[in-house]
Amino acid sequence: MIATFVAAVAVFAAGLAVGRSLAGQRLRVLTALRAVRLGGTESEVGRPVVANARPTQRLRQAGRGVGRALSLGPLRRFAVASLRGSGLPLRPEEFLALCAAGLVGGWLVGTVFALSGFLRLLAIAAGLLATPLMVRRTCQQRTARISLQMGDMLMTLGNGLRAGHSLLQALHGAAGQASAPLGDELRRLLREIGAGIPVPEALTRMVERAANPDLELLVTAVLVQREVGGNLAEILDKISATIRARVAVQNHLRVVTAQSRLSGWVVGLLPIGVFGLTTLVAPQVEGVLVHDPLGHIVAIAAIVLEALGMLAIRRIVSIRY
């Protein structure tokens, strides 16, 4: 019953967020068209001109307050942060809708197959976390590919600068030779510059989209060189050597910590799997943990110790360099 209510609330909230986004876009388009038709700006057209404008202003303020209440601010910020650097063509509202759909799907699986309480809760949690985990995995893979491509791209960019080309000409050459995903980011950067966006702003936007520390290092060096001057080709060579060394160290660390990371997965998933199998074979075990006060204490202690073990292993294998 609680799972049904939570699923209904999640679907309702996601629908409100998507509907609010679509309605806001439609309202902006209609306001712009009205401004063009009346020969004024959007702010002038949207401003009330009648004498009794005070009730209209109050109604608009009330509408803005309702909109802020239904905007799902924390969830939207979480969606924006999750999608940053993933390269997926998803809006925050669509991301939240997929999370809600996964939650409902997990609940339907538990209901259709008549799973027990623990397995049904596990199915709901898996459905809810499926989209964020997939997006995070996509972001990690994309970031790793960009880092691998950075060394060759910087070499091409430095050679273009040594040949006497400007920064934009060198970027054109590097974008033509780089493959996705770095090539896509460079081509989008050049399109934005061609559309009239200043070079520093376009570079900053690229860093925000890619969310890659190596790319951020490159953009910082370019912006500093534009302010104080210097030999940019030399700077790019040093950055290329730094990035190549960092990628080599990262690959070595992944090999060294592979066994520890596997141990972390085993520590995290083995108790859940064992408890799920035990629930299928002997359902009375779950009843003891759910209804007996001593079972509550045992369950809470197991969850806390499980979380501490996974956190300890994660801190051990997460080496900063």
Helix and strand layout, with pairings?
Layout lengths: L1 H37 L3 H5 L7 H16 L3 H11 L8 H21 L4 H46 L4 H11 L4 H13 L4 H12 L2 H16 L3 H25 L1 H24 L2 H8 L1 H25 L4
What does this structure look like?
The protein is mainly α. The chain folds into 3 domains: 2-136, no CATH class; 144-251, Up-down Bundle (Receptor-associated Protein), CATH 1.20.81; 257-317. Helices cover 84% and strands 0% of the residues. The chain has 14 helices and no strands. The chain has helices spanning 2-38, 42-46, 54-69, 73-83, 92-112, 117-162, 167-177, 182-194, 199-210, 213-228, 232-256, 258-281, 284-291, 293-317. Helix 6 packs antiparallel against helix 11 (232-256). The longest helix is centred in the middle third of the chain and has 46 residues, at 117-162. The radius of gyration is 27 Å and the shape is extended. The two termini are 48 Å apart. 20% of the residues are buried. Mean pLDDT is 80; it is low at 35-53.
